[in-house]
Write a structure and sequence with these properties.
alpha/beta; globular
Length: 499
């Protein structure tokens, strides 16, 4: 039924030899829109062999020529934004505006990659010893892989492959099986931009493909973005296989609302963070922390914000909040709301039981606001990954810091305040990788690096920006001497010094 999505290997689509397929579903209608061909270890092996052969030549291409291809790719992505946004909305469910927004954010990293020359510069020191010079250079790793989640089928892969390709690597992408089409369009556009076949490839599949990429001897590094349990698995598996790994996991981000904050502004911003894209973002805001006497005013304001949202299909311009990705994701939101209510929590806004007319089989759940919940309840401590905002209340700033730092996650957090004193203390004292001050979703721009702390990141390198360059390259240090033909130097058995 519908269209077919195949692997992209060596510059063309191929169904592979596994014979396995799965349906591609539309979250708004609940109906099947296409068929995805799934790979296996043999598919991965084929892609790696092709990538290795292509990278041997690509790694010798001048940096100027590489960036020229990326410049062309940037324009092609702009030209095809509407096409890509439509397939993202159809397979993921998010609104067209949100899909275009993630493409634009992905282009930030592509733009960074076009000017990557500065970050690839080595150093040079003359006469470190008599007649001896030293310099450093950065070289590509070879074949690298990216494993990416369903919630950002364009942006998150773009955190990886432009930098990997710009630095001379060949890249194999394993996108989510839920919304695979955008990756194939990107592959086609890379080919149109002039990228040699085999430098960018797409292999579709599930755990079998993930494990094959994580253990294949021909893959030098693995980038991963997804849930914390799978991030731990990928990091452990690929590290044990001797690979460089960056694995970005889950989150449970807090937004602290101080008594001096503009409550209406804070509520509008937290609502955007909590309910945008149905809360299916690793930088979503599933927890608000009201400090002191801000609690009642914030509850009233966030209730008003939630209740005015229109829930519907992503291709309807009037939709503010789309469906979640699967029926299981919808049922998880409902179950966790049920469990919170059974534990004595107050359901301020109830998203359960929502039915969108004409889309009765869609994965819809309304925005939900919960308060009066114990700090050890799973609806607060776990990543719901849906349109649920838990509002916790504390007495003072120190208690807010303790609550934020008590989470096992450390991805992003925000504070809403008019106080420079509290803002500065907040950015200094929270044990979190990305911080927003009066900004709900503090995702860094493409020329900075993205990554959290604690159970939100496994590995030493954050994504994109300068740390991305460091991840996809390795440094050499070269020491040179050019003696004259007539120069004689006596041999010495002692350790060399800089005299």
């Amino acid at each position: 039924m519908g269209y077919e999505i195949m692997h992209w290997i060596d510059g063309r689509e191929t169904a592979g030899e596994s014979g396995q397929t799965q349906p591609i579903m539309n979250p708004a209608t609940g109906g099947e829109v296409g068929t995805l061909h799934l790979g296996d270890a043999a598919t991965v092996d084929q892609a790696v062999r092709v990538a290795a052969a292509a990278q041997a030549d690509w790694g010798r291409v001048s940096l100027a020529k590489r960036t020229q291809i990326l410049y062309r790719m940037r324009q092609l992505m702009i030209d095809h934004t509407d096409e890509i946004a439509v397939v993202i909305s159809r397979e993921h469910g998010k609104t067209l505006a949100d899909a275009k927004g993630e493409i634009a954010r992905g282009l930030e990293t592509l733009e960074f990659a076009t000017s990557i020359t500065q970050d690839l510069k080595g150093g040079f020191s003359q006469n470190v010893s008599t007649g001896v010079d030293s310099h450093t250079l950065r070289q590509p790793l070879g074949v690298v892989a990216g494993i990416t989640p369903f919630n950002f089928p364009a942006m998150v892969p773009f955190w990886m492959h432009p930098i990997a390709i710009a630095t001379g690597n060949a890249f194999i992408l394993k996108p989510s099986e839920r919304d695979p089409s955008a990756s194939n369009i990107v592959a086609r556009l890379y080919q149109e931009a002039g990228l040699p076949d085999g430098v960018f490839q797409v292999v579709h599949g599930g755990k079998t493909v993930v494990d094959a990429l994580s253990t294949h001897a021909g893959v030098s590094a693995v980038s991963f973005v997804g849930s914390t349990p799978i991030a731990k698995h990928v990091h452990a598996t690929a590290s044990a296989a001797g690979k460089r790994v960056q694995a970005l996991g889950g989150a449970n981000n807090h937004a602290v609302v101080m008594p001096d904050a503009n409550i209406e502004f804070a509520a509008s911003q937290v609502a955007s963070g909590a309910f945008g894209s149905a809360g299916e973002r690793c930088m979503a805001v599933p927890v608000a922390v009201t400090v002191g006497d801000s609690h009642e005013a914030f509850l009233a304001a966030i209730k008003a914000e939630a209740e005015k949202l229109t829930v519907g299909p992503g291709d309807d311009p009037s939709t503010d909040m789309p469906p979640v990705i699967t029926p299981e994701a919808r049922d998880r939101v409902i179950r966790m709301t049920d469990e919170a209510e059974q534990a004595g929590a107050t359901i301020v806004v109830d998203g359960r039981g929502l039915v969108v007319e004409g889309y009765e089989n869609g994965n819809f759940v309304g925005p939900t606001v919960i308060t009066d919940l114990a700090a050890d309840h799973p609806t607060y401590t776990e990543e719901v990954f849906g349109p649920v905002l838990v509002v916790m209340h504390v007495n003072n700033f120190d208690e807010a810091i303790a609550l934020v730092n008590g989470s096992p996650f450390g991805n992003g957090t925000a504070i809403f305040t008019d106080s420079g004193h509290y803002a500065r203390r907040f950015e200094d004292e929270v044990t979190v990788g990305m911080i927003g001050i009066n900004v709900p979703i503090p995702t860094p721009v493409g020329y900075y690096s993205f990554g959290g702390w604690k159970d939100s990141l496994f590995g030493e390198h954050h994504a994109h920006g300068p740390e991305g360059v460091g991840f996809y390259t390795r440094q050499k240090a070269v020491t040179t001497r050019w003696p004259s033909q007539n120069e004689t130097v006596e041999s010495s058995m002692s350790f060399p010094t800089h005299d």
